[in-house]
Design goal:
Helices cover 70% and strands 0% of the residues. By secondary structure, the protein is mainly alpha-helical. It has one domain (3-57). Helix 1 packs antiparallel against helix 2 (30-46) and helix 1 (3-24) packs across helix 3 (50-57). The longest helix has 22 residues, at 3-24. It is elongated and about 35 Å long.
């Protein structure tokens, strides 16, 4: 698995978990989905993605987006 795919999977899991938590625990958990979305937008413009850096540190190979 490449870093790109791992970042997309991680972002998807965070968004889905946020939705589930907002429905089951407290509505304020939806803020986690908003944070994930904002992080994806800033990563698209700046190229800085903390999740990509973490996946690179654990040894995943780079893809096309995060080198």
């Amino acid at each position: 698995m490449s870093i790109d795919r791992a970042v997309f999977v991680f972002a998807g899991v965070v968004v889905l978990a946020s939705i589930a938590l907002s429905l089951l625990v407290h509505p304020y958990w939806i803020a986690l989905a908003a944070f994930a979305g904002l992080n994806m937008i800033q990563a698209a413009f700046t190229g800085f993605c903390p999740a990509a850096m973490a996946f690179k540190a654990i040894g995943l190979k780079p893809g096309e987006a995060f080198r």
